[in-house]
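Reposting from the mailing list since nobody answered there.

I have sequence plus structure tokens for a pair of proteins and want to know whether others read the tokens the same way I do. The first protein:
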Amino acid sequence: MSDTTHTRPPPSGARQGERGEEGSAELPSLAPWEAPPGPAVPEATPEQVRTLVGEARVAASEAERTRVAGALNQQLDALAAGGGSREVADLLEQLLESGRLAGLADAEGRSCRAAATEALTRLGFPYALEVRPEDLAFLRGQAEDSPVFPWVPTAAGTLLVAGSAAQWWQFSSRHGGDLLDEPLPLVLLMGLALLSLVPGVLGPERSASQRAGLLGLLVLSLVQLYLGFFGGYYGALSGGAGLLAWLLLMLPRR
């Protein structure tokens, strides 16, 4: 046998500086279960969370609000990962109880209320015991996040139409249906209230058209109530119905 020692060439692609102490090449692991590291989430602080909540509430567009809500959810998750503390628990409880997270959700539909509730539960004992039952029920999918329930727009529209019809019947039965002789025709007020209901129901959430419709409904309803109770006129029925419809539509959505 030849006792000549053959030196094995280095693996293809090995570069200078990629060798261990014994000279073997250190190649990156290609294990399929080792995912590449993702972007690091900056360390969260209560002040950062408060700032993001404020930015989300005053966002000028739905897209901007969704973007800020996504960043807020990341910060809430990071707070939970940082371990339990009285300061963090108090912040989460304050946000949940104040309702400032209502209607905020990221691009994937994850509610900020759910993220805050989950963060509070992940803080461990004793903070997890302070989660409100309604928040825990929502997190488990048994309740809505401060919703406009499916029946609310229908109920608001039905209420306003019924109130206007009842007011029309009351006025016309006493005045022979001659509505246009009045200085402030009741039919005009009721018609405008019904028109304002359309953008109030169909307008995008927190859009200018929705706000204008809801504001118009409120103002017209209050005018009719004033005329009905203090102006010696008719309008209490339609105005009261409009005010109740406005209150229903003002329930926070999500």
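The second protein, same order (residues first, tokens after):
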Amino acid sequence: MLITPEVLSQGKPHPEPYLRGAKELGLEAKDCVCFEDAVAGLNSGIAAGCMTVAVLSHAKKEELPKADGYVDGANGCGGS
């Protein structure tokens, strides 16, 4: 299953992409985890009520919204 812009009325940072994805999976957003490396994506996941994990690939932790956890490819995983 893919949730693409063609099936959405609003994209990130609106929560619709994550809400739609959860619905398609038969889940509630609160039971999903979103992995994002950009501000708009994290804001989308947060607004949808998902658990969020910031991927520190293009931005530093301080540059991204408050996530539930962080993944740094060079140093492994870390909590908030």
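Reply #1 (J.P.):
I read it the same way you do. The chain is about 25% helix and 20% strand.
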